[in-house]
Amino acid sequence: MNDSRLPSAYLRPGTSSFSDFLAEQAPDLLPGTRAVPQGNAGDLAPHGTTIVAATFPGGVVLAGDRRATMGNIIAQRDIQKVFPADEFSAVGIAGTAGLAIEMVRLFQVELEHYEKIEGSTLSMDGKANRLSALIRGNLAMAMQGLSVVPLFAGYDVRADQGRIFSYDVTGGRYEETAFHSVGSGSLFARGSLKKLYRDDLDATSCVEVVVQALYDAADDDSATGGPDLTRRIFPVVQVITAEGGHRMPDDEVAAIADRVINARMARPDGPTAPLTGGDRA
């Protein structure tokens, strides 16, 4: 008779961390434990670029462009860089695309595993800390050019507000205020957000500000892809509120992107912020 029962390690009570369980039972499956050749391997794999996030009263928006690059080559024009982590949070990836997507999948399982074991969801700070640990586990890869630097955002049901967390390659975790951006075009995106962001934006206006920031990033950073009108490829936008998170439909993002592009025909550098009060020009 064939004994197909699971090994005992899978049946006894254990840690609520799936990554800790994996490290004990099958460490070779963790992304950061795989051996890579000596030297810098950063140019051997596609890289994701710019991710932006901004809060608004009642929620947070997380968005990313669609371009992946390998050196000076466009490796993919429609890559997805923004993923739901659970019902009330999402992750945007910058860095080595393959490792980043694998890390996001592990993070999704980590949160689901915790909920099943503990019977409750992790707090927003707990989720941010779990992601920090996964990034720290990839440090050896990062030192060889295969870094992963995500942006984490979500709605904190306990604090009743949207929150944003950024990271460095060592797993350092930093909470950001109002907005943030990571990736090769982040410098230009943050400059745009500083100009256009207001703390009284509604969800739609916040999405438009984020799309403006991605457009500005693409305008100055060749690794960031702007809206592709020919192929109808637009940013992936995740909106998270007290009702949960959802990906904004492509046709709604396209309508906002079309408005942004049409306005740029008259003003290529985009809208300006008033020096003293008033509405945006």
Explain the overall architecture:
The structure is a single chain. This protein has a single domain, classed as Glutamine Phosphoribosylpyrophosphate, subunit 1, domain 1. The chain has seven helices and 14 strands. The protein has a five-stranded antiparallel beta sheet with strand order 12-2-3-13-14, with helices on one face. Strand 10 and strand 11 form a beta hairpin. Helix 5 crosses helix 6. The radius of gyration is 20 Å and the shape is globular. It starts with 17 loop residues before the first helix and ends in a 15-residue tail after the last helix. 42% of the residues are buried.
Mean pLDDT: 87
How would you name the CATH homologous superfamily?
Aminohydrolase, N-terminal nucleophile (Ntn) domain
Tally of distinct domains: 1
Q: Let me know the number of strands.
A: 14
CATH architecture: 4-Layer Sandwich
Number of helices: 7
Find the structural class using helix and strand composition.
alpha+beta
Descriptors for this entry?
281 residues, alpha+beta, single chain, Glutamine Phosphoribosylpyrophosphate, subunit 1, domain 1
SSE topology sketch:
Blueprint: H1 18-25, E1 47-48, E2 51-56, E3 59-64, E4 68-70, E5 73-76, E6 82-86, E7 89-92, E8 95-96, H2 97-118, H3 124-136, H4 139-142, E9 151-156, E10 161-167, E11 173-176, E12 179-182, H5 186-196, H6 203-220, E13 236-241, E14 244-247, H7 250-266
Antiparallel strand pairs: 1-4, 1-8, 2-3, 2-12, 3-13, 4-5, 6-7, 7-9, 9-10, 10-11, 13-14
